[in-house]
């Protein structure tokens, strides 16, 4: 039987970031197992690429802040280039309740030294070509937020970790985790067993299932979310002079918080999405095309250019929801079992800091981070305040 000091389950951004920091710290033999033929095809390969400082929980602000600082220097530090645009995030607030909540968040963000502007609807409209800000009572903007590149980040971490000895097993599914006397002893896979004392559960929306293999209940539920890509007409891009001023030319991310409709430029097209209130937990990734009219109805109010646009393609991915919308980073209730999962739809941007913190915890180093909001034990303790600014 093969053996490894550490087995990581899941080759998305979390598994790759954890592998990067573990191998950098000389953690011994590390094996990353991914059931797909490639890395980054789970939620990581299906997300909108947004990175932001604008959270309500200080722990999430800290994770994003450290991660964005790394994105700014990714090629110098990790060794591979990534596509990274800091054109800002604009949150549009159309109800007194969300304006009041964001007031509190902005006060917190500013107290932590972040430069976040509080704007009127008119000011938001002036900075966003094509936006209809009717009914927007306030908006927030942080210029250091932006859009980056999930594939580049994941592959960059994985490649650098491989150069330091990481073994990657693709096309391999973890089917069992053996536990003896409260300790991890072995991982069973579709391609043979691996003796190990340490397992990292980085299985994203499937992390609850992987935890169950070890007899641990981890409350992470999968929730389908759609992304659509639109062009002004088939074969044309928004930079075509015929469509000038109908959408932002920059990669500004605009989020209509009260409906969760969001959009940003994606190359020559426009990426947009919205949460579906009727969606129930499940692993189905089929595109629900009959949801598109509900999205375009909201979209047409905020970005009228979308009324006549051609939706050229769409895909669905899974959010990995926890009850308080915060992740688990750290021990998972058994000796040698760790988790980095449950980021509730905002994990990609936090992978660098989350991976760094988890590697420190696993190796007995000071993570320089208060992990209480992300502790597994909080689920047994009852409702925690968690993160409010989720989309
Ligand atoms: C539509 C959409 C938009 C989003 N937009 C954003 C955004 O703008 N910004 C942001 O920060 N986040 C966003 N997210 C959230 C983000 O994508 C996730 O938080 C993040 O990708 C989670 O990464 P992960 O590595 O934990 O999970 P994943 O990328 O899903 O990786 C888990 C991996 O584990 C593998 N796996 C599972 N079970 C097993 C097993 N038994 N054996 C072996 N392998 C296994 C899977 O195949 C998968 O590759 C969005 C998500 C969606 C769906």
Question: Would you give an account of this structure?
Answer:
This protein is an alpha/beta fold and about 400 residues long. The chain folds into two domains: about 1-50 and about 150-220 and about 325-380, 3-Layer(bba) Sandwich (FAD/NAD(P)-binding domain); about 90-145 and about 220-320, D-Amino Acid Oxidase, Chain A, domain 2, CATH 3.30.9. Helices cover about 25% and strands about 25% of the residues. It contains nine helices and 21 strands. The protein has helices at about 15-25, 60-70, 75-80, 95-110, 120-125, 150-165, 205-215, 290-300, 350-360, and strands spanning about 1-5, 5-10, 30-35, 50, 85, 90-95, 115-120, 140, 145-150, 165-170, 175-180, 185-190, 190-195, 200, 220-230, 255, 260-265, 270-275, 310-320, 330, 335-340. The protein has an eight-stranded mixed β-sheet. Strands 10-3-2-14-21-20 form a six-stranded mixed β-sheet, with helices on both faces. A four-stranded mixed β-sheet has the order 1-13-12-11, with no helix packed on it. A hairpin with a 4-residue loop joins strand 16 (about 255) and strand 17 (about 260-265). Helix 1 runs parallel beside helix 6 (about 150-165). The longest helix is centred in the first third of the chain and has 16 residues, at about 95-110. The termini are far apart. The model has no long low-confidence stretch (mean pLDDT about 95). The protein binds flavin-adenine dinucleotide. Flavin-adenine dinucleotide binds near residues 35 and 318.
């Amino acid at each position: 039987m093969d053996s490894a000091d550490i087995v990581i389950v899941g080759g998305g951004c979390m598994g790759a970031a954890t592998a990067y920091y573990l191998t950098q710290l000389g953690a011994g033999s590390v094996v990353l197992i991914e059931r797909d033929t490639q890395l980054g095809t789970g939620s990581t390969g299906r997300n909108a690429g947004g990175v932001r400082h604008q959270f309500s929980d200080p722990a999430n602000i800290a994770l994003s802040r450290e991660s964005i600082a790394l994105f700014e220097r990714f090629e110098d530090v990790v060794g591979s280039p990534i596509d990274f645009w800091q054109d800002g995030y604009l949150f549009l607030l159309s109800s007194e309740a969300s304006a009041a909540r964001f007031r509190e968040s902005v006060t917190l963000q500013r107290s932590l030294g972040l430069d976040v502007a509080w704007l009127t609807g008119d000011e938001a409209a002036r900075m966003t070509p094509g936006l209809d800000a009717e009914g927007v009572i306030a908006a927030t903007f942080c210029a250091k937020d932006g859009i980056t590149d999930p594939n580049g980040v994941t592959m960059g971490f994985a490649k650098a970790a491989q150069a330091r000895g990481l073994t990657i097993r693709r096309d391999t599914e973890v089917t069992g985790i053996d536990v003896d006397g409260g300790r991890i002893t072995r991982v069973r896979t579709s391609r043979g067993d691996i003796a190990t004392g340490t397992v990292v559960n980085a299985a994203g929306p499937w992390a609850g299932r992987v935890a169950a293999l070890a007899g641990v209940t981890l409350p992470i539920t999968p929730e389908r979310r759609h992304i659509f890509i639109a062009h002004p007409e088939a074969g044309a891009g928004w930079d075509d002079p015929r469509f000038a001023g109908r959408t932002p030319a920059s990669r500004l991310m605009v989020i209509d918080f009260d409906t969760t409709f969001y959009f940003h430029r994606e190359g020559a097209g426009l990426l947009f999405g919205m949460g579906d209130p009727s969606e129930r937990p499940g692993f189905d990734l089929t595109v629900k095309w009959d949801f598109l009219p509900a999205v375009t109805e909201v979209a047409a109010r905020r970005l009228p250019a979308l009324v006549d646009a051609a939706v050229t393609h769409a895909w669905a991915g899974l959010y990995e929801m926890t009850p308080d919308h915060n992740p688990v980073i750290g021990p998972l209730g058994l000796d040698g079992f760790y988790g980095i999962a449950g980021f509730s739809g905002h994990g990609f941007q936090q992978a660098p800091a989350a991976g760094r913190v988890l590697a420190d915890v696993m190796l007995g180093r000071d993570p320089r981070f208060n992990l209480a909001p992300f502790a597994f034990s909080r689920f047994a303790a009852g409702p925690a305040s968690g993160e409010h600014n989720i989309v």
